[in-house]
Amino acid sequence: MMKLAALQMQAVAGDVAANLARIERAAREAAKGGADLLVTPELAVTGYGAGEATKALAEPADGDLAARLSALSAETGIAMVVGFAERAGETIYNSALYVDGSAAPVVYRKSHLYGAYERGLFLAEKPAACVVNHRGAKIGLLICYDVEFPENVRRLAQAGVDAVIVPTALPASDHDEFIARKLIPVRAFENQIFVAYVNHCGADALFSYAGLSGIAAPDGTLLAEAGRGEEALLLAEVRPADYAASAATNSYLADLRV
C-alpha cells in the first residue's frame, strides 16, 4: 500500500526559491497526513511558463537541486517526484526527479514534447519505461503529454507498475476537462493501474492552467480530485489488492494480441 499526495500548485514562473519553498511546505504537510510520496506538477521548480529563462535555471540531475530535495525527503520521511528542467551538457530536458532520502535519485525525461514552446526549449528523450521501486510498490513515470499516448501507459503497465505518476502542465482549453476527467480515468481502467495526474493552477505571463488534478483508480473512479483555480493537496491510498475484482473482469493486459 502507498499513500500518495498530489500538489496542485500555482508556481511562480522563474522564481526557483519561491517554488522550492512551496514544495517544502507541501512535503511537510503531506508527511503529517501520512503520505509516503509527494508529486508536483511539470516543471514545478522553474514554473512551466518561465520561457527562455528555463535554460539558465536548468540544473543537472545530480546537482544541488537533487541534493536539496533528497535532504528534504530524508528529513520529512516522504519521497517525492518533482518536475524540473534538467541540464545535461548543452542539452535541456523536461524532466521529473524521484528522490527518497539517501537512495540514488531517478530521473525521467519527457519523450513527447507538446507544441513549439516545448520544442524550442527541450530535447525529447526516446520513449522508454521508467520504473521506480518505491517502498514495496512499483511506480512508472511520465510527464503531461506523454500520458495522452496510450502506448506509453501500456508500456509501463506491461512492466508491472502499480501506478503511473504524471506531473503535468495542462493549459486551460475547451478540452481540458475531457483530458483530466475522462482520458486519465480511461488510462487507469484500460491498464488496471492507478494514475496520478498533477497539474498547475492559476496563470503566468504565458499560460493559464486548467487545474483539475486527480488520482484515478484501476476501475476508472477518481479517488481524489481538485478544482480549477485553487491550490490543493490531494491524498489517496493506492491499494492494488482492493481492485482485484476489477483486474479479473477487465483483463486487457492478459488478453492483448498484437
Describe the structure in brief:
This protein is of the alpha/beta class and 258 residues long. Helices cover 30% and strands 26% of the residues.
Identify the notable features of this structure and list them briefly.
8 helices; Nitrilase/N-carbamoyl-D-aminoacid amidohydrolase; six-stranded mixed β-sheet; 12 strands; 30% helix; alpha/beta; 258 residues
Q: How much beta, percentage-wise?
A: 25-35%
Number of helices: 8
Helix-strand pattern: EHEHHEEEHEEHEHEEEEHH
> Strand order, biggest sheet?
5-4-3-2-1-12
- The top level CATH class name: Alpha Beta
Mean pLDDT: 98
| CATH architecture label name | 4-Layer Sandwich
Low-confidence stretches: none
Distance between the termini: 32 Å
Number of domains: 1
Write the CATH fold name.
Nitrilase/N-carbamoyl-D-aminoacid amidohydrolase
Query: What would CATH call the homologous superfamily?
Result: Carbon-nitrogen hydrolase
Number of strands: 12
Largest pleated sheet: 6 strands, mixed
Label the structural class. Answer: alpha/beta
Instruction: Give the proportion of residues in helices.
Output: 25-40%
Output the radius of gyration.
17 Å
Give an overview of the whole structure.
- The chain is an alpha/beta fold and 258 residues long.
- It has a single domain, classed as Nitrilase/N-carbamoyl-D-aminoacid amidohydrolase, CATH 3.60.110.10.
- The chain is built from 8 helices and 12 strands.
- It has a 6-stranded mixed β-sheet. The protein has a 6-stranded mixed β-sheet with strand order 6-7-8-9-10-11, with helices on one face.
- The longest helix is centred in the first third of the chain and has 17 residues.
- It is globular and about 50 Å long.
- It starts with a strand and ends with a helix.
- The relative contact order is 0.17.
